[in-house]
Amino acid sequence: MKIHIKNGRLIDPKNNIDAHQDVFIAAGKVLAVGVAPEGFHANRVIDASGLVLCPGLIDLSARLREPGFEYMATLESEMDAAVAGGVTSLVCPPDTDPPLDEPGLVEMLKHRAKSLNQARVYPLGALTQKLEGQRLTEMAELHDAGCVAFSQADAPLADSNVLFRALQYASTFGFTVWLRPQDAFLGKDGVAHDGEVASRLGLAGIPACAETIAIARILLLMKETAAKVHLCRLSTRDGVEMVRQAKRDGLPLTCDIGVHHAHLSEMDIGFFDPNCHLVPPLRSLRDRDALREGVKDGAIDALCSDHTPVDDDAKLLPFAEAEAGVTGLELLLPLTLKWAAEMGVDLPSAIARITTEPARVLALDAGHMTPGHSADICIFAPDEYWRVTPKALKSQGKNTPFQNMELAGKVKYTLVDGHVVYED
Amino acid sequence: MAFMSNNPQLNQNGELQHLLTIEGLNAGMLRHILDTAESFVGVSERDVKKVPLLRGKAIFNLFFEPSTRTRTTFEIAAKRLSADVFNLNISASSQSKGETVLDTVDNLAAMQADMFIVRHAQSGAAHFIARHVAPHIHVINAGDGRHAHPTQGLLDMYTIRHYKKEFHNLRVAIVGDVLHSRVARSQIHALTTLGVPEVRVIAPKTLLPAQVERMGVQVYHDMTTGLKDVDVVIMLRLQNERMRGALLPSAQEYFKSYGLTQDKLALAKPDAIVMHPGPMNRGVEIDSDVADGKQSVILPQVTFGIAVRMAVMSILAGN
After folding, report:
1. Is the previous residue joined to A67 through a cis bond, with omega within 30 degrees of 0?
2. Which residues are A256's β-sheet partners?
3. Which residues from chain B sit within 8 angstroms of residue A318, using beta carbons?
4. How large is the ipTM?
5. Which of A99, A114, B15, B147 to pair with B254, CA 20 to 30 A apart?
6. How far apart are CA B273 and CA B280, in angstroms?
7. How confident is the model at residue B50 (pLDDT cuts 50, 70, 90)?
């Protein structure tokens, strides 16, 4: 299949391209950019007039709910959602049921995902068996099975000795450990930021220090072990500041935030909106502003969707009992564009936060459109507004605080390995 | 975000459709409820303690969390208004069979309910139910988690007005476990809305919610300064499970620091009244001498509670 994408605005941050250039694809790869190779005859021409062409999005966290939570969503539905959101590579956390702590489970997931011929799936292996925070998993085996890094997901890791040894062991093999910083005890039963709104609504709070104390512990253990760490889903201003400082000190540290945290704060909980029940919690406006700024100045490396499809029944409960999480695969691009517009960030820099930067976090040769490289491409209309409704979302999870809002940024085509896997 | 914009308690005409929290209601609405309650106080003193205002209406007491006192006062209030009252102790029945809150509510709505009185252990449960019931059904929050207990807040305001006449010249102290108290939150909203210039909370730091001062209160950590010259002392119940562990070391130490005794009460104005939402822990948050003393208005609170609940029910049913 040879494809000619013409008249589009090509934005390829890694190659420093932002220009109207055509892209030529053959045998699953980018064949040329700009001028057609001699004798190139396209089987298909995509007219991208008025559209932006960029590397396919790389999402650092998307729960596909398999295995174990198929009633919430299936691999089929969520892979559809991914490509509908322009996402061509995604990382799935190990908090499935059972958790991804055995090579067989990882191989099965990789195999199932591959057979769907859509986005590429990069599983995170469980850092400890059953995510119980006690015994290490067979990291080398899991790595061979396809795990790109190791994580506790949202499961607590109370024992500092286990964390210390896990970091030592992972760094032995050069594996990166992904940790969401949250103390195992502070705010243990909390469901919202321990601030004004939680106090007013009588919701159990999670103090900001639950995050910063965990970050401090991780940073100290990094110095001790020389392990590479990726911090997931920062939520506090002080946390961002600690990361900024640690990077200045030269620690091998990267971090991300969920894209919803760049927009929402505790105030959005309003009168107990269960769609604003997130992990980590939506924090104060000050925190939110610091996160937005951190993504802009690079203290925070990447934005991710933290996609967590939750079925209606699990959200139709009082706030604290409602399952946490938002659907995000199809909102990652529009919410990133919204962040960029509000922060005065140019389009190439915005796109970098969801393509080249997450690729760098993953140490993956992806997120660019260099000739010879796999043609994973997202083509979108940057100024086209669409309304977020249950019907408009392919994901089985309709749980979003942006319900009924109009967002700019509509994906028109998604290509993986040179195949059109989504078309609006 | 739709959750932000419209007050879920009000109907399209801006009238009370549900009573879920005091927050967001204006002083006029609160006064209207108190005035209406005043007209019902007399009913309880008559030989025939009934008015036909809610005749034929079906009111369900939906208690997902056990309570005898509050449920009973609602039941009495509804019966004095001639409504048919049905008590459901749900914690013991459907919940254990895995039925969700909404299933229960839908089933009862199908039985032609007109009003739900809801108590639930989760903050926001009453809002949740109100959001999902048919438009003709009214919901009264009889306590949701730590969030709100608006009829208790209102009956406390009724009591204060009864003894102090005005709100604008008062100093009120709320003492004890504000962190876990839905009653305290409702009282704070009501007091600040009705124009009380100085609302104090007195508690150890472990029993105060984060940024409580943002609710418009002054924070004190000791009784000596906190009770000085106050007109009203409201004691909060300290639940047994809070008395040991990380929040407090012991009931004895709590009583020593924050229990209300005659000596401490002497710091307040000589005509100060003492209130407690009940049930009391004598010897933990309040000394028996004070609870039964001449400044205590704890039993009148209960009596006024019936009139206030009658007022709320009749106002909602009329909207």
Report:
1. yes
2. A302
3. 101, 120, 122-125, 128, 144-145
4. 0.92
5. B147
6. 16
7. confident
Contacts of B46 (CB under 8 A, 6+ apart): none
Would an 8 Å CB–CB cutoff place A313 in contact with chain B?
A: yes
In whole angstroms, give the CA distance from residue A1 to residue A325.
39
Q: pTM of this prediction?
A: 0.94
CA gap A177, A171 in Å, rounded: 9
Would you state the pLDDT for residue B95? 59
CA-angle at A59, arms to A55 and A61, nearest 5°? 170
Element (H, E) at A410: strand A406-416
> Which pLDDT value is given to residue B44?
76
In whole angstroms, what is the distance from residue B154 CA to residue B312 CA? 9
DSSP chain B: -HHHHS-TTB-TTS-BS-B--STT--HHHHHHHHHHHHHHHGGGGSSS----TTTT-EEEEEESS--SHHHHHHHHHHHHTT-EEEEEEGGGTGGGGT--HHHHHHHHHTTT--EEEEEESSTTHHHHHHHHS-TT-EEEEEEETTTB-HHHHHHHHHHHHHHHS-STT-EEEEES--TT-HHHHHHHHHHHHTT-SEEEEE--GGGS-TTGGGGS-EEES-HHHHTTT-SEEEEPP--GGGSSSSS-S-HHHHHHHH-B-HHHHTTS-TT-EEE--S---BTTTB-HHHHTSTTB-HHHHHHHHHHHHHHHHHHHHH-
Separation CA A308–CA B109 (nearest Å): 33
Residue B132 sits at the chain A interface (C-beta within 8 Å): yes
pLDDT, one tens digit per residue, over B238-266 is: 987 777 778 999 999 999 999 999 999 99
How do A29-33 and A23-26 pair as beta strands?
antiparallel
Q: How far apart are CA A342 and CA B80, in angstroms?
A: 58
DSSP label at residue A86: T
- Based on its alpha-carbon atoms, the radius of gyration of chain A, rounded to whole angstroms, reads 21
- Cβ neighbours of B195 (radius 10 Å): 12
For residue A266, the tally of other CB atoms under 10 A from its CB is 25
A285 touches chain B (CB under 8 A): no
Residue B140 contacts by C-beta under 8 Å, 6 or more apart in sequence?
Answer: B18, B19, B74, B115, B116, B117, B118, B126, B150, B151, B312, B313, B316
Instruction: Flag if B210 and A405 touch (Cβ within 8 Å).
Output: no
Is the Cβ–Cβ distance between B150 and B157 less than 8 Å? no
Residues of chain A with pLDDT under 70: none
Encode pLDDT of A139-178 as tens digits.
999 999 999 999 999 999 999 999 999 999 999 999 999 9
A306 is catalytic: yes
Strand extents, DSSP E, A259-344: 302-304
HSE of A320, CA atoms in CB hemisphere, 13 A:
24
Q: Are B80 and B44 in contact (CB under 8 A)?
A: yes
**Largest interatomic CA distance in chain B:** 56
> In whole angstroms, what is the distance from residue A173 CA to residue A169 CA?
7
Report the SS3 class of residue A128: strand
Left if phi > 0, otherwise alpha if psi is -120 to 50, otherwise beta: which for A28?
left
Task: Please identify which of the residues A95, A101, A306, A376 carries the catalytic annotation.
Answer: A306
- pLDDT on residue B97: 61
Chain centroid to CA A379: how far? 19
State both tokens at B162. 């009864």
Structure tokens at A318: 């009082």
How close, in Å, is residue B45 to chain A by CA atoms? 37
Per the listing, tokens 């032995």 go with A172
Cβ distance B2 to A203 less than 8 Å, yes or no, reads: no
| Amino acid at position B154, single letter | L
**A307 within 8 A of A59, measured Cβ to Cβ:** yes
* Residues in CB range of B39: below 8 A, 6 or more apart: B311
CB contact under 8 A, A318 and B122: yes
